[in-house]
């Protein structure tokens, strides 16, 4: 199967250090002393790929479009989070570039007082058409999913023959001035190490950053994939490529990095299973219907979208956000009670 056009076309800077970062207000601090300054916003739960670790084969139970937050509603909620101390925002999905007007939404969020870093995660299939508009709208950084450079294996993993489209999207993103560009590779126990080495060689040649991510047991589809210790795999790859451990603080996420001789990070690992990072968690997720998910590995949530559409004022929504953050769980239970999470990744937001 070849890549079909997106459901609808999109309408219509440097990394974090390139923007003036305003002083944070009192901020959002949860019950464990963690400052929550990062919000991931799912603009759709639809996707044009069917990666097995993310969405069950044949799944059709998507959120009704009538329940999707409009872009102005999303921007309103993001503005409230920014007023409460959130500084980093990431647009996700599903596949965010399948929703009409994402560049316009990005521009509205980039203009909000307090937002210092705006990024977007994509599978890359639609990126060649939208990279320039996203950059012009104020998106600072891109993360692009890429699990293999083998066309047949790409089709097996994703259910689509779209590798060429993704590679074209990567070229368009680089031409649009995005830097750094991060490649996200979900690597599990059955992933051939040789293929990961090939991805690392590609990233080094293209000037990208490769990040290896352990799959999480979200829903029955996620539990089919046994995780591998990516810390050990990363160390082997780094040693073979002559990389050295990078200093902490590369971005706002949990990745641990290795860098090249010039100090630039080129390889990272995200290890929610083998070496969880819950003690330093700084993020929450907003679903396409406005549900605030407080932890990937717990069911705690706040129905912000429902409250908004019931006529809640900004002050009432801000109180609901603060109450939710105060109740944020200490950590996930993927290792001890994985069966508790029946929703899968695309329903929550990547």
Residue stretches low in confidence (pLDDT < 50, at least 5 long) are 1-25
Figure out the total of helices. Answer: 11
User: Helix and strand succession?
Assistant: EHEHEHEHHEHEHHEEEEEEHHH
Our Rg estimate from Cα atoms comes to 19 Å
> What would you call the structural class?
alpha/beta
Determine the N-to-C terminus distance: 24 Å
Number of strands: 12
Largest sheet: 12 strands, mixed
Apparent shape = globular
Percent of residues in helices comes to 25-40%
Arithmetic mean of pLDDT = 85
Strand portion, in percent? 15-25%
For the biggest β-sheet, the strand order reads 7-8-9-6-5-4-3-2-1-10-11-12
Task: Explain what the structure shows.
With 350 residues, the chain is an alpha/beta fold. It is 31% helix and 15% strand. It has helices at residues 71-83, 102-110, 127-137, 151-158, 163-175, 193-206, 219-222, 230-241, 304-309, 314-326, 345-348; strands at residues 38-42, 88-92, 117-122, 141-145, 181-186, 209-213, 244-245, 256-259, 265-270, 283-286, 291-293, 301-303. It has a 12-stranded mixed beta sheet with strand order 7-8-9-6-5-4-3-2-1-10-11-12. Helix 1 packs parallel to helix 2, helix 2 runs parallel beside helix 3 and helix 3 (127-137) runs parallel beside helix 5 (163-175). Residues 1-25 have low confidence and may be disordered.
């Amino acid at each position: 199967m070849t890549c079909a056009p997106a459901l609808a076309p999109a309408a219509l800077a440097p990394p974090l250090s390139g923007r003036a970062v305003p002083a944070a207000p009192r901020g959002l601090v949860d019950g464990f002393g963690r400052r929550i300054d990062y919000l991931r916003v799912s603009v759709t739960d639809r996707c044009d790929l069917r990666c097995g670790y993310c969405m069950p084969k044949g799944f059709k139970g998507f959120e009704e479009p009538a329940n999707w937050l409009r872009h102005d509603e999303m921007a309103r909620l993001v503005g409230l989070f920014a007023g409460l101390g959130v500084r980093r925002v990431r647009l996700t999905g599903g596949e965010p570039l399948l929703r009409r007007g994402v560049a316009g939404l990005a521009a509205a969020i980039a203009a909000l007082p307090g937002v210092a870093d705006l990024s977007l995660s994509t599978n890359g299939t639609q990126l060649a058409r939208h990279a320039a508009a996203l950059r012009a709208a104020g998106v600072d950084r891109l993360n692009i999913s890429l699990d293999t450079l083998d066309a047949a294996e790409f089709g097996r993993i994703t259910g689509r023959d779209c590798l060429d489209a993704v590679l074209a999207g990567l070229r368009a993103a680089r031409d649009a001035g995005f830097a750094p560009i991060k490649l996200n590779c979900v690597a599990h126990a059955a992933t051939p190490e040789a293929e990961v080495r090939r991805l690392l060689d590609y990233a080094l040649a293209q000037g990208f950053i490769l990040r290896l991510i352990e799959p999480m047991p979200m829903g029955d589809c996620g539990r089919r994939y046994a995780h591998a210790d990516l810390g050990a795999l990363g160390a082997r790859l780094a040693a073979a490529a002559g990389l050295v451990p990078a200093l902490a603080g590369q971005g706002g996420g949990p990745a641990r990095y290795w860098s090249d001789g010039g100090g630039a990070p080129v390889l990272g690992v995200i290890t929610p299973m083998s070496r969880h990072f819950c003690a330093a968690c700084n993020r929450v997720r907003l679903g396409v219907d406005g549900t605030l998910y407080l932890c990937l590995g717990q069911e705690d949530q706040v129905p912000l979208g429902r409250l908004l559409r019931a006529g809640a004022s900004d002050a009432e929504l801000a109180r609901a956000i603060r109450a939710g953050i105060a109740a944020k769980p200490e950590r996930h239970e993927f290792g001890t009670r994985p069966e508790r999470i029946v929703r899968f990744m695309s329903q929550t937001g990547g």
